[in-house]
Amino acid sequence: MLCEVRGHRRLRARPQRRTGRWPRARHGHGHRERRRRLRPDPVVHRLGGNARRDHAGDPVAANTAPPPPASTAVAFFTSLGSACAAVGRLVTESSPPSMLEFLDRASVDIVRSHRELGFPDDAEAMLLLQYDDHYDSDRADPMTRAAGIAGEHGAEIIVADTPAEAHTLHEARRSLGVATERLGASLIEDVCVPRRALGAFVEGVAAIGNRHHVRTACAGHAGDGNMHPKIIFDATDPDDVSRAREAFDAVMRLGLDLGGTITGEHGVGLLKRDWLRTELGPVSMELHRGIKQLFDPHGILNPGKVL
User: Fold this and answer.
1) Are residues 38 and 132 in the same domain?
2) What's the CA angle centered on 271, arms 270 and 276, to 5 degrees?
3) Mean pLDDT over all residues of the chain?
4) Which residue among 29, 99, 134, 211 is least packed, with the fewest CB closer than 10 Å?
């Protein structure tokens, strides 16, 4: 059955009952109409990608079989340095994981205070790994290889055997935000640094917290060095708010000094507006203003904000 899409209506041409032939087009443009009917269905083409048609013209999915379940594990390290060394090898050796999340000691403690998940007491860092790769007997299991790398760096590995166990392992990362909110107000950012500087950044954030007398924690996406440092403070205490802001500026400075950027995925916003100028410099800022002026000559898009 041939079909075409016009706006939101689907029109179908049905064969004549006696001859089985397609009805002739009317209004003098039959050739054009017939040719349009034989074109690929635009909706199927956009949504299905590799969709094909059967002999009657109806769209048929190329492959609708569900993918195999992902392989998930956590690794607990007794030192920050060993965890960061393992991150570099996990990304560059063998198949890189589809997920590689990092929690420092402070983050692990925050999660532990919120929910008991059986974390070891001596964990200084935690990695959450996941592989979605397909493999067979001719290709090594990527999780087995990853567990070997983590083990060489002294990690304790827990691999999920069921989807329910994998969900529990994911809860360690997912519950960090909720657990942090229970401790007070927080400034949560997304400084991104080169992977080689990951350890120095995490240690630097902890030192900044000690120096400014505020609680800090650091977690994020270790695979690309995109960290989410958290500065936790009492929003009702003006002195605590001031110290938190000073700590925030120090974290921004640390990220830039390590060759990173003040934002890896969340954008700039008002809080980091001044630091954007510091990172880009006057020439790049003027270029950004020129591009905005090109698309917004009347200044009606987000006026008085960053640019």
Assistant:
1) no
2) 80
3) 81
4) 134
